[in-house]
Every structure is written in C-alpha cells, then in structure tokens.
Amino acid sequence: MAEGIAGINDEYAKSIGIPTYDLVEVLNKAEHYHHWKADPELLMRFYENSADTIAWLQKLGIEFNVVQGMGFKTHHTYEGMGKQYVNTLGAAAEQLGVQILTSTTGQELIMQDGKVAGIKAKAQDGSILTINAPVVILATGGYSTNPEMIKKYAGVDLEKIAYAGLPGSTNGDGINMALAVGASDKKLTGVIQYFGAFMDGDLFSSELYNGMVQPMLRVNQDGKRFISEFMNQMDPCMYGNAHVQQDAVYQIMTKADLDRFTTQGAPSDLPYYRANTPLPDFVNQIDRIVKMDKGNVFVADSIDELADMIKVDKTALKATIDRYNGYCQTGKDLEFGKEAAFLSPIGDGPYYAFKLKCGYFCTNDGLEITPQAQVLDKDGKVIPGLYAGGNDTGGWCGDTYDIALIPGTTQGWAANTGRFAAEDAARYLNK
C-alpha cells in the first residue's frame, strides 16, 4: 500500500514547479493541525532533512513520477509504487553487505550494564537466535494488528474498525521489547491512521472500496447524518474520528446508483480510480461480500423495510432522506455544506444499506525518542544503544494524522528517522 513519501523543498519538486515553502509556516500549520501535541523539535528536524532524504533515495535508485497534495504539495509518488521502493532499497542494502533475515521475529532485547548488548530472535523453524550487537534500531511498524494494544492505547471499539494490510504484520513487537527494558510509554497516545469507510471483507483499492468511500448519503444508528460525506475524501483521518464515534454507520444507495457506478463511474476521484470511470465489477464485488455472510449488505423495496432491517427508526430515516433530497434539489446542503456536485438524491427503490466500518492503515504513536531517534526511558534519559524509527515512535502526531496537510508524512518520517538513527548509531560506535 506504499504510495509515496513526504519531501519539502527538494530539488526534484522544484524541478517540476512545486513551490518552495517556509518551514516555519509548515511547522506552525502542522502544530495547529495537531493541537500542539506533536513535538516541534522532532517535526522541524524531519522537515529540514526531508529534501536531503529525497535526494538520497534518488541516488539509491528510487524514482518519482509526481508531487502533489491537498495541503502542502509534499507527496512524492513512487514510480512503481511501494514494490519498486522496497525492492530498490533491499537491493541497495544487500550490495552493502547487509544480511536480511526474513520470517525471523525479534523477541527481546539483551541488556548489559544498562546498555543494549543485542537481541534475541525466533527463526522460522522456532529456534532462538542470539545476536550480539551494541546497537539495535527498532523499526517494526507499530501495533496496528495487535487488538489488545489498539484497545489499550486508542480505546476504540474493535467492532467499528477494519485493518487494511497484512494480518499479523505489525504486532507492536518493537515497542513492547523496548517497554520491557524500561522505555517510556508517554507517547503511546493511541493515534490511528484512518482512511475512511470500509466494508468488512473488502480489499483496499477495490472497485467496491472506491464506491463505499464516495460522498453518498450516510447515516448513523439514529438514521441521521453526522458529517459531510465528502470529508471522507477531503481528510479521511478526520472523517475516521467522526465515524468511530457512531454506534453504526450505513451508506444508503439505490439500484440506480449501483447501475450508474457500474456503467458511468463514481462522482469523485480516488488514488486508484478517476471520477466517472466505469466500475464494471462493482456489483459483483458486492455479491462477493454478501456471500461472506457478514451481515453488512441490506436490500429492501421500501425505506420502511430498509429501516427495519438496519434497526433504525423509520420516521427519522425518512425525515433524513426527505431533507437530504431537498438539499439535492436546491443544490445547497444546509447541514454540512457538502458541495452541490456531490449531492445525489435518493430516488426510487430497490434500496441498499451498506454497513460500514472505518478502515485504517497503521498506528502513528509509539516510543518516546530524541531528535536523533534515541529511545528514552521513563525518566527521560537515553537508553544507550537503543534507537527507533517510523511507526514505532511517537511525538510526531497529535491525535490525528495530517494526511490532508502534509501528505506522505508517515513514510517520510520512517525514512528520515531511520537515517537519524543510523547516523547517531555511527557516532555512538565512534565510526
């Protein structure tokens, strides 16, 4: 799912006409977005070094094809997407003699006299490897596939969210190994990177996904709207905050809507599909979800019948639809100000209700670190030899990921903190 990386004021961006940004302005807007919960020193070091990191990646063979963004234009999209990025960096590491052990999981850190002395890991055959090393850099991707940690730190009802990634791939191993040797947990604040509405059983980037995040009428357990449905595209992370506050969320559509999506396409753009591009497999993908028997697709001949099926008050749902259809007729959404282009009326049946969860990619909080990516203990002191980067770290997000302001930050943060850790580790080792 890797698409691109944030870079600010790099030469590649300048060469294709992206403006130069004042980093103080970027920082202040970012902190305003994060409600000043993010560490400004961490953010500024990231921003200041991001251009050099883009150049470094290019020297290693990474190619970009566009720089864009809803806020600052910082998102550098990889040519060949994430596969090219991973394969290129993997090949570069192997050329330098790096030994990469796959299907091998870190188990615990080895400490000696208060300093890191190595790590124990489990091989695919179950054997335990002891790797002696004065430096360990943790980069295990956070804890997005660890339900217990999600519940503990984010406090989100697990029935309301759905992970779109590799099951079991990011279990919080790095964070937990560090916590076990006394690392601070104060930056474990439960920041989940939402990407918006998602049907349980679906696949991210599918035609069905494209349809379910469209700005169609969406209601909660009370049969009422709760946000501008277009917020899912404008800022999916902010949308996610609203979604998970509801007991249930349903997207209401008609058979005519489904037919239109299939033959003409959906009304708004997404990274994988342009607006008004036919989605020929859309209905087939709905049928696939129905066959999974997850209880998230409802079809009825009347609004009353649909309300009964989704256990929503009939009067409330009918009032919402009547009011919404009025907005569609006048072209003015008096509740949430959704653009007229995305006001699509609910016409004649059959009627569909799709029960939506909120999808998420990853977690954006973790261990407390210095600007050099050194891990801190509970007293705010550096744990010698222990470093962390990317989603194993916290302090760079407030309560919501800033995708709509500085897109590509997650991967930019990962690449830059990885470099910070390696550079300081070399200093620590006197190399």
From TrEMBL:
Keyword tags: FAD, Flavoprotein, Oxidoreductase
Entry keyword annotation includes Flavoprotein: yes
Domain FAD-dependent oxidoreductase 2 FAD-binding as annotated: residue spans: 32-395
Gene3D superfamilies referenced in this protein's UniProt entry, alphabetically: FAD/NAD(P)-binding domain (3.50.50.60), Succinate dehydrogenase/fumarate reductase flavoprotein, catalytic domain (3.90.700.10)
Statement: the UniProt record of this protein carries the keyword Flavoprotein: yes
Cofactor: FAD
SUPFAM superfamilies: FAD/NAD(P)-binding domain, Succinate dehydrogenase/fumarate reductase flavoprotein, catalytic domain
Pfam family, one: FAD_binding_2
GO MF: oxidoreductase activity
Protein name, UniProt field: Fumarate reductase flavoprotein subunit
Species in which this protein is naturally found: hydrocarbon metagenome
